[in-house]
Amino acid sequence: MNADQDLFERARKVIPGGVSSPVRAFGSVGGAPVFVSRASGPYIVGADGVEYVDLVCSWGPALLGHAHPEVVEAVRGAAGRGLSFGAPTEAEVELAEAIRSRVPAAELVRFVSTGTEATMTAVRLARGATGRDIIVKFAGCYHGHSDALLAAAGSGVATQGLPGSAGVTAAAAADTIVVGYNDPTALDAVFERMGDRIAAVITEAAPANMGVVPPSAGFNALIRELTARHGALMILDEVLTGFRVGPAGWLGLEGGYRPDLITFGKVVGGGMPLAALGGRADLLGMLAPLGPVYQAGTLSGNPLATAAGLATLRLADDAVYEHVNRRSAELQSAVGEALSRAGVPHVVQNAGNLFSVFFRAEPVRTYDDAKDQDTAAFARFFHSMLDSGIALPPSAFEAWFLSAAHDDRAMARITDALPQAARAAADS
Ligand SMILES: *Cc1c(COP(=O)(O)O)cnc(C)c1O
C-alpha cells in the first residue's frame, strides 16, 4: 500500500468517508485520493512525495497557481499582525473597493467565509426584500449546501423541489422550484403560473458544476427580464466564475444585463475561506445592522483571508487572464484531438477559460444531457492520467482548472499523458 492509501484508511476511521468534502473521496472514479502534502505553482505533491500537474486548482481559487510567493507573503504579514479580531479592518474596505471597481453591480459587499453562506444570505435577503417565499433554481446548478438550495428536480421540466439530501425538510424544498437549465419556455411558464410569489431566480452565471454548460444566447438576459417584470430578484452566482473567467467574471464577459445580487467565492479568497455577497445598495442596505435581514459571522472578513484575496486580485491582471485563456484553449484542443484519435465519443464545452469534457457524442445543454454520458470511460481516463502524474478533477461532472502558473513544462506533461489515457477510455 502506498502512503495515500494508508492515510485514506486512517482518515476513514476518524472522518466520514475520510474527507472534509464529498467529491474529494474519489467516489465516482474509485481508488484512494491523493493526500496533498504541499503544492507549488501548477503542481501538487502527494503523501508519497509524488508530484502531479494539478488541474483542480483547489476547485478554482488557485488562479495564480499554488503558493504564489506574493500571496503567501501577504498572508504571512497579516498573520504576524493577528489572526482574527472580531472588528472591522482596512483590508476589508480595500477588498470591497477592489470588487466594486471590477464589478460595478456590486455596489455594496458583505463578506462571509464560504460560497454556501453567500448564496444562503442572498436567498434570505431576496425573501426579506420581496416578502415572497419562492426561489427558482435550475437543475444541475450548484449553489452550496444550504437547505433551500439543495432541492432536486422532480420529473418534468419545472417542478416543485424535492429534498436533494436527507435532512432537508419537504417544506424547505417546497419553496424551491426547479426548472430545466437553458429552457426559456419552462421559465416563462413558471412566471406565468406563480410570478407574484417568486422572490428570486438564482443561477450560476455560467454553470460549471454539472460539467461546463454555458447559458444559451440570451438566457441570462431573459432571467433578468422576467424577474424584473414580475417584481422578483435575479441572483447571479459567480462563486466559481467570478474573477476566474475574466477580471469581472462571467458578467464582465457577457454583459448586457445587471443582476440584483451577485455571489462571489473561490478566487476572491485567494485560497483562504472567504466569499462575498454583492449587489444593489438598497438591497444590501436591508442587512443587519442597517436593516431587518439578519446575517453575521465571527470569522467573516478574516484578516488572513482578506489579505490573500486582495493580493490575488491585485496580481490577477490582463496578462494572467490571457495566459489562462490561452492554456485553456490549448488543452481543450489537445484533449479533443487525443480522444478523437482513440475513437472515444466526447464533447469539449467551455465558458470562457472554464471547460470540461463530456464522454458522449452530442452537446450538453441541460443536466439530463450531462448525466447521459459514459462515466466509466471517464474513470478509466482519469486513472490513466493520474498514473502519468496528472491530477484531473475526480468526477466527470466538474470543470478542469488551469492557472497562470501552468507553463510549457506542465502543459507538455499533460499533453504527453493524453494519448494513453484516451486509449484507456476507449477500452471497456
Ligand atoms: C463552490 C460553489 C458554491 C459553494 O461554495 P463553498 O465555498 O463550497 O460553500 C456555490 N456556488 C457555486 C457556483 C460554486 O461553484
From TrEMBL:
Matches recorded under CDD domains: OAT_like (cd00610)
Signal peptide: none
Chain positions with N6-(pyridoxal phosphate)lysine modification: 266
EC assignment: 5.4.3.8
Main localization of the protein described in the UniProt heading: cytoplasm
Example of a GO MF term: transaminase activity
GO biological process, one term: protoporphyrinogen IX biosynthetic process
Cofactor requirement: pyridoxal 5'-phosphate
Pathway: Porphyrin-containing compound metabolism; protoporphyrin-IX biosynthesis; 5-aminolevulinate from L-glutamyl-tRNA(Glu): step 2/2
Cell compartments where the protein resides: Cytoplasm
Pfam family, one: Aminotran_3
Cellular component, GO annotation: cytoplasm
Similarity comment text for this entry: Belongs to the class-III pyridoxal-phosphate-dependent aminotransferase family. HemL subfamily.
NCBIfam families named among the record's database cross-references: hemL, PRK00062.1
PANTHER family xref list: GLUTAMATE-1-SEMIALDEHYDE 2,1-AMINOMUTASE, GLUTAMATE-1-SEMIALDEHYDE 2,1-AMINOMUTASE 1, CHLOROPLASTIC-RELATED
Summary of subunit composition and partner proteins: Homodimer.
The protein's name in its UniProt record: Glutamate-1-semialdehyde 2,1-aminomutase
Gene symbol of the encoding locus: hemL
